[in-house]
């Protein structure tokens, strides 16, 4: 039933545990006790330091790291993050919007940004959207697997298809897509005016950041997503709900699309 040869079985049965394996078993037990005692806050470096003191032995950190992998444990804090490499932007624009978050008519001022979602086993999706400051509606959005220029360009194209002939001021942060020469040329071709937040000033794009918070609190954080398709369906459903059904006190208890329709 186990598909093991007779000779192999008896060889395993008579096999003696090596001194090294006995040491690893003892070290594993001590490591798990210590890990449980500190509620999992130690990584392999701290475990190595403490085990050396307990056992009075010279223990290699790589050995502890390997045993942690076998035991299926890891530190619950301070996971290693990718190093951020500051890049030089291709071009920048002044903060022409200057936190003037109101507009007299539709398609006068647009905000745009990209946010990240996680699903499955550490997989990521990126949502790019454009918000109209007059009625707070989402004019266009695109959910993709990569945070790249194509994602942002497609969002802009969809917005201009939804509002043909519009020439709004479009405000963003200083993300690499928005500082690229390709994005600037696209705006110039459409006759749009570019505005950018100042460095480290998230509030300069406040309403857009506020929408991300609303979307995530009212939909994303309430569910666990295993597939991209499930995540996309809920985002589609929520943005439709936000645009057409979610009433806002700041809009005189109307939905964004009701305000947009009245303006039209």
From TrEMBL:
One of its GO terms (molecular function) is nucleic acid binding. This is Integrase catalytic region. GO terms for biological process: DNA integration. Involved in the transposition of the insertion sequence. Transmembrane segments: none annotated. Residues 85-264 form the Integrase catalytic domain. It comes from the Bacteria. InterPro entries: HTH-like_dom, Integrase_cat-core, RNaseH-like_sf, RNaseH_sf, Transpos_IS3, Transposase_IS3/IS150/IS904. Coiled coil: none annotated. It comes from Desulforamulus ruminis (strain ATCC 23193 / DSM 2154 / NCIMB 8452 / DL) (Desulfotomaculum ruminis).
